[in-house]
Amino acid sequence: MWVRLAVFSCWLVLGGQGQDRASFRKSGDRSGRCQYTFTVDSPVESSCPSSVGDQEAENLRARLTLLEAVVSRVLGAEAVTEAAREAKDAQETKRLIQDKEQLDRQVQELRRRVEELTMETEKLREMPCPVGPADPISGFGVCRWLHGNPLHLMIRVSVRVNSKLCVTASLTSRTWKTYVMAVFPPGSVTNDAFQELKAELSELPAPATVRENAQSNTGCGELTSVGEPETHQKADGITGKYGMWFQDPAATGRPYGPDTVWRINAVGKDIKELYAYEDLGQLGRGFPMKVVVLPEPMESTGATVYQGFLYYQRRRSPTLLRFDLASETIVARRDLPQAGFHGKFPYSWGGYTDIDLAVDEKGLWAIYSTEEARGAIVLSQLDPKTLEVTRSWETNIRKNKVANGFMICGRLYTVASYSTNTTTINYTFDTASEKSKMLGVPFHNRYLYNSMIDYNHAKKKLYAWDNFHMVTYDVKLGGS
Predict the structure, then answer these.
(1) 376: closest CA among 101, 98, 82?
(2) Secondary structure letter of residue 221 according to DSSP
(3) How does pLDDT run across 398-408, given as a tens digit for each residue?
(4) Are the beta carbons of 446 and 421 closer than 8 angstroms?
(5) Looking at residue 466, what DSSP letter applies?
(6) pTM (2 decimals)?
């Protein structure tokens, strides 16, 4: 009774203060007992602390928010990468289009020249050969062809009204024609003096194209064919998969001559061993006469031998070294300006072939590329004594699109593939005309991994290292 009264009194007291915040409820529990429940809103706390379930839900929402942020960042990075790739592809496509347009212009120019030469040839064929009556003084009227090698000399002789003998001579070759006139007074030419007549003809300097074509007399000309490879030796061990070998085309003979064979195995981090063989026979038998240890290691397969010196690139640097084979010391060094190195602009087969040194009739060359050239081959002629660049040419040949390169008569030639059995020498760049053109000279990689090609102008052969094998190729130049 007293309990009910106390509860009722409390209800009356609190009811006046906040009947919206308190409630009283009577109910029975599961066992049937009567329970009184009194509920009052807290005047301080606006809500109760979160339950365990609410905390888990909140943690889950935080994790989902973080996951959404990560996914958004990844998608954004992919979009940036894709945009960069598309920009690079567009830039490469633009360069290819420019190269194609340049080649098209060259083709049009060549066609125009061919048409002009064809028209000139037709005019000359239609030109009459005037043969005058026998001169009463000399009794001489003649039209003869004289055949020289490699040029043809045509003499036309006629008597003019003024009784002076007019001689027209035409020197012709496959690509040029030049005319000279000589006038002789009456009585100065007779039948017996025909040989003297030829000697008195005026001589004109030949155009540049004629001089280039006539270079066959000195062993130069454009590459027209490459023979089948001849194998001389096979390297033993994995270090011989890539390598270099040469014979000095301008050997001084002290103490090594033109028959001395030099060989370097190029697999490894510390390439220093240079093997010397007395001749090709000793190379074939595998007996070196000497092993030279280089003072500084070399990079890849771009070295060459010239005038008694080994020229090579120092490992992991653009530095070129001139090594005296007689004294076995480095006598000159110089950085190749702006040259990429150690995998920046290699040939298509890789191997850190960024800088390739070569020798031909014109001297010492470097085949490489720079950031400014954007991967196109840069060709520089070097001073053999100081290694200083004397002149450079930038080509439109992409270095990583060709397998190898070599020089002949001031012309750069590139090979299309290093691993295809039958490939081609696909491009050439002429430093004289500063123009490049496509070729299709067949070339064979017999052992399917050609890592080095050099030209020896004294032997008129290409030296190559094809998958452990040391091989040579005979070459034929235009006019030779």
Answers:
(1) 98
(2) -
(3) 999 999 999 99
(4) yes
(5) E
(6) 0.58
